[in-house]
Amino acid sequence: MPSFAYSARDTRGQLLQGIAEGASAAAVADQLLGSGMTPLKISASADTVERAAAPKFSWGKGGKVQHDDLLLFSRQLHTLLKAGIPITRALAGLQESATEAMGNVIRQVRE
Q: Domain residues of the chain, as ranges?
């Protein structure tokens, strides 16, 4: 769950600062209000920002996906989906016939 840095005032007016976990900044604000604090500022902590910026997958072996391979994949996927093939089955079939680089990307999408 993401972490958020906050500054808030308690019922006595004292300034409090800390880190809270929540699904969103609004959820953290609700937590603070529920505990009797008035939120002044809530921002994503550095850890949350770093995790959001980190790549979700690696290209792995196989090199770079070629532009033509990506175009072909897009057209084929569109055709299969338009024909009513479930996306999981379409991706599995396209992975088998794709180049190594494109196959690696499709595999990671399927996971």
A: 3-53, 67-110
